[in-house]
């Protein structure tokens, strides 16, 4: 793994980017992509795509979609004692946040770090249950609401975990927001790898907003681009702590061939295409089924229908303050995406569109 890849992963995963507040991620990605694209298109929700144009005057459009946002919170109340109350942005469990460090992004674009209140064992009665998110309190060290406001914190500000990117072993790493800064990194590196390669189609590579709150940005991005075929790059939960549990993801077993989830079924023709590419290039992959969904759920239903596939990776403990992933899975997914895109031409795209 190159130093450049690791630098992208560290920078992007540690970055603040809750749903509807993805501007830091967008700025970073645009800067990194600029040398490799002919320009950008932007939707009105905040999503963007770098465009690599083809010499073909009747070029079809291929979309590669990540999403910039991560799970997080939004401030709903500041108490007179200087504590902060908040609500969830995206799907989060209630019982994992006490004692964790979170960081607020203020309207001054400054970060304020705090600790979620946690009742010490000494003061517990034994009657406490798992708190609701709305019952939690973030302590930024303030003694009054006035002091909180003086530090630039206000209602509606976003909050995400305060977590560093670290290496755990030779191949495994821990960080927040691998869902879905994985997709952001691979989008940048796809364009880097294709910089000197002429394609038969116009390639749109970028990222959507607000995936974690209902695939909202993907809908408008698909309307903007009107793709002929689409790839979604996203991270999914692994369920391998007790060994393989059906088709639910195992770290180190390769990229994910997502054949079914709560929002989309993979077309058989697209499945066959991906398997042939993987086998030709000796790419390690695993079949995967998820009760959740990805931006593919919105993209594949846009227009008159867009053949869409997810090239993903799995990670343990996503939608929390830390996720654990295997870098070899990322490498497999990156190779798979690069080779799949290069295999496309007008005939293949038409086949993916109209063959079941």
From TrEMBL:
Binds 2 divalent metal cations per subunit. The active site is at residue 211. Pfam families: Peptidase_M42. GO terms for molecular function: glutamyl aminopeptidase activity; metal ion binding. Its cofactor is a divalent metal cation. Its EC number is 3.4.11.7. Keywords: Aminopeptidase, Hydrolase, Metal-binding, Protease. Signal peptide: none annotated. Zn(2+) 1 binds at residues 67, 179, 234. Belongs to the peptidase M42 family. This is Glutamyl aminopeptidase. The lineage of its organism: Bacteria, Bacillati, Bacillota, Bacilli, Bacillales.
């Amino acid at each position: 793994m190159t130093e450049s890849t690791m630098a992208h992963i560290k920078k992007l995963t540690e970055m603040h980017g809750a749903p509807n507040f993805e501007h830091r991620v967008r700025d970073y990605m645009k800067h990194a992509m600029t040398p490799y694209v002919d320009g950008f298109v932007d939707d009105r929700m905040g999503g963007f795509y770098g465009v690599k144009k083809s010499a073909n005057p009747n070029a079809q459009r291929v979309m590669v979609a990540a999403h910039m946002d991560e799970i997080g919170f939004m401030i709903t109340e500041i108490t007179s004692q200087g504590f902060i109350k908040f609500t969830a942005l995206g799907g989060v469990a209630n019982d994992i946040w006490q004692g964790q460090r979170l960081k607020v992004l203020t309207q001054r674009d400054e970060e304020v770090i705090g600790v979620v209140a946690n009742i010490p064992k000494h003061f517990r009665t034994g009657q406490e249950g798992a708190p609701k998110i709305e019952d939690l309190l973030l302590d930024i060290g303030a003694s009054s609401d006035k002091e909180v406001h003086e530090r630039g914190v206000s209602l509606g500000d976003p909050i995400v975990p305060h977590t560093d990117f670290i290496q755990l072993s030779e191949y495994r790493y821990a960080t927040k927001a691998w869902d879905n800064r994985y997709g952001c990194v691979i989008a940048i590196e796809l364009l880097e790898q294709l910089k000197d390669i002429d394609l038969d189609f116009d390639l749109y590579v970028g990222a959507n907003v607000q995936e974690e709150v209902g695939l909202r940005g993907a809908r408008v991005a698909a309307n903007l681009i009107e793709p002929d075929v689409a790839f979604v790059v996203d991270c999914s939960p692994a369920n391998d702590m007790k060994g393989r549990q059906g088709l639910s993801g195992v770290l180190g077993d390769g990229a994910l061939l997502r054949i079914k989830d709560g929002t989309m079924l993979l077309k058989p023709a697209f499945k066959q295409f991906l398997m042939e590419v993987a086998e030709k290039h000796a790419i390690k992959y695993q079949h995967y089924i998820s009760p959740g969904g990805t931006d593919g759920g919105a993209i594949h239903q846009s227009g008159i229908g867009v053949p869409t596939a997810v090239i993903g990776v799995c990670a343990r403990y996503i939608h929390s303050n830390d996720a654990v992933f295997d870098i070899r899975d990322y490498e497999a997914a990156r190779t798979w995406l690069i080779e799949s895109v290069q295999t496309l031409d007008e005939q293949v795209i038409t086949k993916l569109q109209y063959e079941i």
